[in-house]
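hey so i finally got around to running the thing on that chain from the lab meeting. sorry it took forever, my laptop kept dying and i had to restart like 3 times. anyway pasting the input first so we r on the same page abt which one it is
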Amino acid sequence: MQTGFDNDRYIEMQASHIRERIAQFGGKLYLEFGGKLFDDYHASRVLPGFEPDSKARMLAQLADQAEVVFAICANDIERNRRRSDIGVTYDEDVLRLMDVFRSMGLAIGGVVITRFSGQPKAEAYQAHLEQLGIPVYRHYPIEGYPTSVDLIVSDEGFGKNEYVKTERPLVVVTAPGPGSGKLAVCLSQLYNEHLRGTESGYAKFETFPVWNLPLKHPVNVAYEAATTDLDDDNVIDPFHLEAYGEVTVNYNRDVDTFPVLRAMMEKIFGRSAYQSPTDMGVNMVGNCISDDAVCQEAGKSEVVRRFYTMSERIARTGQGEGELDKLRLLMREVGVDENHDPAHVAALLKEEVTGLPAAAMVLPDGSLVTGKTSELLGAASSLLLNALKRVAGVAKRTYVVSDEALAPISHLKTAHLHSRNPRLHTDETLIALSISSATNPEAERVISATSELKGCDAYFSVIISPTDEAIYRKLGINVCCEPKFERRTFYHR
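ok and heres what got predicted. didnt touch it at all, straight out
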C-alpha cells in the first residue's frame, strides 16, 4: 500500500516536542491524551504509514520521565460502557492498557475514578484494583462544572478531590474513551500541586483535527466523519487568529471551553500560559506527512467508510439518520460518494449476476477480486481465499482447500452444532486452509500472504456476521457492508 506518513520521524519529533513542553513548565507537565493512545486504527487509515501504536511507542522513548494515570468515569463503570471498536468494557480496558504500558517500560501512577458519588460498581472496581496493588483515587462531581470557576477552583471544588501522588516529570492522563474526565483530572492536579508549592503545567495531545492542515483537508474532514455521534465540528481557532494572526484548526468543544479553561488557569496561577486552544496542543502529526496526495485520498476513503458504518448501524438499530445526513454532506465536501471505491460497484454487480450475497476487494496492486456465495463458503470466506490466492501468486482455479476438507466442518456445524448455516465462516475457512497446508505447499503460500491484505477495503452486498467482520479486522482489512441483511428476519446474529 502507498505510504503518506513518516512514522519514524513522527516518533522522534513528537517525543522531542513534549520534552520541550516539560521544560517550559519547570519540569512537571500533566499531558492530557485525547483519542486513543493505543490501537489508533483511525489514524493509521487516514495517515498511511502511521502505526496504530505509534503514540505509545513515542511515550516509550520518554519512559524514564513518564508515568501514566488513567481516568474512568464512575457512571461508565456502573453501566458497563464498552469501547465500540474492540468491544471491551471501559473498566476492563483500563487493565488491558496497563499491561500494554507496563510491557513498554512505562510506570503506572494509578487510576482516578471521576464523578464518584457512591456508585456500587465503582466501589467494587476500586476494591478490585487495590487488591491488585493499583493506587485508586476518587474525584467528585462539582456543581456548576465547568463554568462556576470560583467554586471549581476552591477547597469545595478541586480541593475536595483526592490528590494523585505522582513522581515523574511527565504525567500522561489517558482514558478508555471520551467523557472520562481527563481534563478535570489534569486541572485538579494543577490546583493541588500549586497548593503544595509544586510548579506544574498542562498540555493537550489530540491527534485530530490536525491544527496545521486546512480546515477542509480530507484528513480533517475524516475526523468530523468519525465523530458525528459526538456532534463535533472542526473550526478555525479564533483565539489563535486574534493572538498571532495565524489560521489554525481546532474543534468546537475546545474552542467553546477555552475561555473557561483560561479563567481556571488564571485563578490557579494568576495568569494563563496559553492564548488559544492551539497553544495548548503538542501534536506534530501534520509535520510528518510525507505525501499529502496519499493522505488526502486516504481521508476521502475514510469518510466513505464512516458512511457505510453509520448506514449499517441504522439497519441494526433504527438510529443515526441525523449523523448519516451529516456524513452525506461531508462526502460532498471532499468530492466523493458511496461508489468511491470500485469494489462497492463490483460487489453489487456480482450479487446481481449470482443472485446471492457477494463481495469484492481492491488489492494492493490495484487489481480487483470478487467472492460469491457457494454451497460450502459464504461470500466473506470466498473473497478472502480468492484475494489470498491472488497476492500469493496461486492460480484462481487451484484448490488450496479441497471440498473433502470443507465438507466435514460443514457437517459438524449443521448435524452436531445445530447451525442453520452450512457455509463456513472465515475463521473456519482459515482453519481448513491451515490443515491443508500440512500436505499442500500452495496452501502454505496462501497462508503466508495474509499480511499483504492489510489496509485493503472489502465491500459486501449484505451485512456480514460479527465473526467474519472480526477476522477481517484482525487481518487489517477494512469492512464496508450494504445496509441490508441476508435473511428477512427480525433478529440477526
